[in-house]
Amino acid sequence: MALKPTTTTTTTTTTTTTTLLTLLILTLTLPTPISASPTAYGICQAGCAAVVTACYSAAGFTWGATLGATAPPTILACNSAFGTCQAACAVTLLIPTL
């Protein structure tokens, strides 16, 4: 005489399958922290460098050339903006990306 599966076994199997699928979906949809901060920092620094290069070019100068105390106000403004941009980039190095 063969044993027939009861409805309890079928219900338990269905419940287990549903629970596993729910856990899988939750695992795949929950955000996980990624430490991509060094990458974000590098991208930010590259953006700052591109902007300061454009700023210098618009003023008629070459970025990286030493002007010292004779730097015109436009170049001083470019340098100040570059420093502010770099400071903002430093923050991206400290925070994890989600």
UniProtKB/TrEMBL annotation:
It comes from the Eukaryota. The keyword Signal applies. Keywords: Signal. The keyword Signal applies. Residues 1-36 form the signal peptide. PANTHER family: ZYGOTE-SPECIFIC CLASS V COPY B GENE PROTEIN, ZYGOTE-SPECIFIC PROTEIN. This is Zygote-specific protein. It comes from Aspergillus ibericus CBS 121593.
